[in-house]
Each structure stands twice: as structure tokens, then as C-alpha cells.
Amino acid sequence: MSKTILVVEDDKSIQRLLQDALSELGHTVVCEKDGDWALKTFDKRPVDLVILDILVPVLNGFQVAEKIRERPRGKNVPIIMISGIYRGARHRQEAAEKWGVSDYLDKPLQLPVLIGAVQKHLGTAPAPAAPTPRTTDVTTASPPPLKKAETRLVDDEGRQEKKEVERLARAGFAGAQVARGNLAATPFPEVLAQLYRWRSTGALLLRRDQVKKIVYLKDGYTISVKSNLLQECLGKIMVRERMISEADCEVSIKKMKATGRQQGTILIEMGSISPHNLVYALQVQLESKLYDVFDWEDGDYQFNPKGEIPPSTVQLDHTPANIIMEGVKRTWSVARLTAQLSKHLDTEVSPHPDPLQRLQDLDLNPKEELFTRLIDGKRTLNELLNKSPLPREDTLRLAYGLIAAQVVQVGAGMQGGETTVSPPPAQSTRPEDAATRAVHVPQMVPPPLRKGPLPRPPAAPAAVPPAPVPAPVSLTPRPVTGEDRTAVGTPPLAPVDKGAREDREHVERLSKRVKEMRKMNYFEMLGISKNASIEEVKKAYFSQAKDYHPDKHFGTQSAEVKALADQIYSMLSTAYEVLSDPRDREDYVRGLTTGVKSGVSDEVSRILAAEGKFQKGEAFMRKKDWSRAQECFKAAVDLYPDEGEFHSYLGWALYQTNPSDAELARQAEKHIEHGLQLNPKIDKSYLFLGWLYKGTGRKELSEKQFEKAIQCNPDCTDALRELRLITAQRDGAAKRKAN
What is the pTM of this model? Predict the structure, then answer.
């Protein structure tokens, strides 16, 4: 029988570990990262067992245990405490005597021990991991329609998205230079892989019967997905994942219609979900829309490189290779995998010769890593399958995932080299195809492999999928105080959020590395001697290049980070290409005697200078010296206009120089909006725009910006405070009107 387990842990990796392991046993797992939200969740949901770390924010584990025991429902609920610091016998005894802790486990956790404790206290027998449902025969193209009773869980945003997707599907890509084909001939994983190889930017329209989806890509990375399925709206997803109840969903939808606010924000205000879990739910929603397509064995696709990517505060945070691997694992049946791989069983499999493909970021477990090490170009696919340390079914999925993602190749480029993109069948008679049937569709040809800087990957959330975690701030309305009546236009400055701070630190580390490499020759860059063999050159290159591969930095918010990492990767690649070719190497060594050194591009020099100006601007901003801050941010923008954060800070500083100047406010607004176009993932940009709207009397617009700031950064306390204030003012106005 399924039980509900509350995990209170602020380490995301441990959260993910526990969530995956306990979910596979059939339990519902709810994660919170601080003691305050843990208690709210405990009060809101029926919890059968608590796994509680001692060192968590706001309220520590001891305090949480004490407060749980004070509640009638919490007197007998099993509590398993975990700690990496409090390991003494005294702590164990105190935990058992004071709060009735059932088990006290040390970190690092031994997963079998923890699972054994969970099963013991829940009274459940050990059970094998439940297999992921897999479709073996896909014959219907449309999922069952929503029952009338279920439509009450569909919000207005879901209905609007359906209309938008239907409109785009009807219009098609008339007049655009599209690539198109059928998923029966080119499976969806291979379509995604080829778009990544070509570093494509645009919109991929997928149609199967009445189901239509649009996948948006930037530089080959999947950013977001839109769907015409009402089943994939946010409320339905959260109810399905047991994050909220159907009753909570219905109440939130009613409040949405009454106030015009977003459902997620309302649920936070209701205490039904934490800000971190809202972001997690939005991620799960995107994943559900995308991974559903992997299950399609037929259907048409069209890719339009001119398709406009809508700005989004929440984006998919997986690399293309990880998306492909996960989609195959979730949906592909053994029969389908066997049919796909059978024609290549007697063909050798080798690592892809292009480092950009070969070094793609993949999250593999130790046994999967062992399998990849067997791939050396000397063994056939059948030999690899037979030597695998994994079960046959898992090996088939891993092998096809690697081939489809083009991390490895079969033979001389079959099935993982070049994917053919062909026009849709001529017999298609759908009315929505009429606009595109007569358009000449050129063969989509990949660009040649090249030296030099690589295309930049898109800005997105962190590469590792976030486990559902909360934030310690509540939106519960409270009376407006004098503290809340801060002069409009001069809100308190929020500290730099964790993501932005990490980007700043990353820029400094990469800048230091670039400066060091500027003084090195190619041998020094790779850390090898001038007498190194070709194999030593290759080994040194691959050991370093993986750290600067675009996949390692696709999740950053900073254009500076991406540009610097790209430059380092390019310099390492150039060193490898020169030193691995005997003739080029000889010419290069000859040139070294004349004192020739590798240089750094003008772009990198501008980035370093711009970063210095920006940091000075931040220092002036903290002192509220707005004029000098504005000058520094303007200099940073002039030096490196691709960084969205520079534009947003320039706009805010410009506005603060004279908040009463309407023309300055308009200019500032344009700067911030441009910053958001360059990077829609910076919470400060939405904060600045929300405060600007508030200061210029457009409170109805400011609320939306504060909501978006929370979606970017669940720990954005300034945005949470502003929304709490708006709620209090709205409730106060309603009471006055009623009286």
C-alpha cells in the first residue's frame, strides 16, 4: 500500500536520491528544504513517515521534531533523523527520549539501511522497483478526452495555450524554409539529436491526429514545450503528482478568475505549495509535455528556424543527450528497441569522432558508465549487448539512447551519423497541410565541422533537475505596517540571489583561466611536454575539454560565462587540432622559436573589461550612488551588449537617478525589457520592472512581474513580500467595500 513520506533535507542531491528510491517502492514522496515549510506541509497533508535532517534552515530538525510531536496527528508518526555532524550517543539518546525518534542514521547515508528502516516503520515488506509503464503498441493518436468533471481542474492559461497551439498548427509554417518528415521514418529522439548537432534555433511542430505540440529550441537545446492537451495543464499535473489536492486546485482556479493572478502564486498564498515546489511543478509540466512525444511511433514534424521562441521564466534544464536518454527509458518498449537495433547488431560501434558530440553531458550510473567504456570501435553492437553489466532491457535502452543522441556512432555514420529529413507524405489530406504542401522544402544539410568559437547554448535553469524543495517565506496576508509603506521607487535592495552570485564567481574563475591561457603555448594549455605522442595529446585534450563543453554551461544565466567557456573550449580544441596533426605541429613548433604566443579574442577582452565596470556599478548601487552606478552599467553595456543583466541594472539605476522623470522612466523600462529579452531567467530584472511599474502607478502590471520573479528564484524574498503586501491591500479594500 502506498504511503506518504515527508523528506526534510536542504541538499538537492540527497533529496533526489531519496525521492527516486522511495518512489520506486510505490510511496508518495514530498520534499521540503526548511523546517518552516515542512511543518506547513505536515499540517496540510496526511504524512505516514518523516525523514528529517537535523541541519535545515529556519527551524532545525530538533525543533521540527518537537513541533510535530505537539500536534495530535504527529504523536505517533515515525520520524527517522539523519545527520552528518550530530553523531554522538548523547544526541541519539536525546532524540529518542525527547521526541520519540524511531531511527537515527549517520551521513553519508547507506541507502539500503534507510530503505530497511522505512519499510520497518511503515510495516511494508521489501518490494522490487515498480517498472515504468511502457507502451508496446501505439495505435491511437489521441489520448482519451477529459471527462466533464475533470475540466474543472483546467485553468485559463491551459485553455489559452491550447488555442495558441491550434492557431499555429493551422497556420503551419507557410513560406518558411522548413525541414519536415515523419516520425515513423525518423524517431523523435533522432530528430532532437540532429537539431542539436546543427545547433538549430526555432520551433518544432509535431502533429499526431488531433494532438499538436510545439517544441522550442535555441542553439540545439530544448527550451520549452507548448501543447493543445488540456490534460497537461499545471493544475492537472500537480494533482497527478499529489502535490496538491483536487479541492486545492478547484479553489485556486476560482481565485485565479476572481483576481487575475497566476495559479502557482495563489497556491503559495493558500499554503498548499512552497515556492520551490511550484518551480518543480512547472518543470514537471514541461517534462510531461515533452516525454509524451517519445511515445509516438508515427506523426509528422516540421521545423521552422524562424519560429519565435516565447520568453519563459521556467525552462527545461536537461541537456539534449539526457533528454533523449530519459525519454527512451520512460517510453520505449523492448519490442520497439529490438526492432530499431536489430539491423545493426553485426556492426561496430565507436565513440563519435566529433568531440562536441562525444563529450555531451550525460547523467549515467556506475554500471552505465562501465558499458560506455566497452565502446571502442572494435566490438559489434551484439558483442556490446552480450558483455553489458546491465540487464538486457536496460542495456537496449542505453545503447539506443547513446546511438540516437549521437554520442556514439554505428559503422560509418549510420543511425547516429546523419539523420535524413524528408518532406511529409504526398497523400496527406489534412486541411492544415494545404498551406505547406506547395512549398519547396530544401534538404537540411548540417554545417561542416569547424574550428574556432562554438555557438552559444541557451540560458536555462541548472543542469540537474531540481527536486521539489520549498522556500521559507509565506504569502499569508498580514496587516500593512509602516515598514511596508516604503517610498515607491526606493524599495530595499535585495541581496544577489544564489544563481547570480554563482555566475559572478564563475566569471571570475573563467576569466582567470583565460588570462593564464593567454600566456601559454599549446603544449602548456594541454599540460603536456613538447615530446608528447599523439595519443597523449588526445588524452590530455579530452580530459580538459569536457569541463568546458557547451553542455556544461548551458544552464547558466550569464552570457559572459558562456562566452568565456566557449573561448576556452575553442582554444583547447585548436591546440588539439594543431598538435595532433604532424605537419601542423611541426610548423607550430617552428613558430614558437620566434616567440609567437596564442592570443585571446577581442570578445574576451571586452567581457573582462565589462565585468569590471559592472562590479563597480554594483558597489555604487549598494551606496545608492545612482548616477555613478548608471555610468558604470552603461559602460558595461557598451563593452558587452549581449549580457541581459547589464541592461536590466542599467535601467534600474537610470530610473533611480530621478524616479519622478517620466521620460527617464520610459527609457529605463526599455532597458529592463531588453535585458529580459536577452535573458528571461533573472529574477532581479522582473523585480526592477515590477518596482518601476509600481512607482509609476501601474500596480496591476507590477503584480505579474513579482510573480515571474518567484518563478525564476523561489527564494526571492522581495517579490514574496511585495505579493504579500498586494494581497493585504486587496483584502483590506474588499473589507472596506463590504462595510
Answer: 0.72
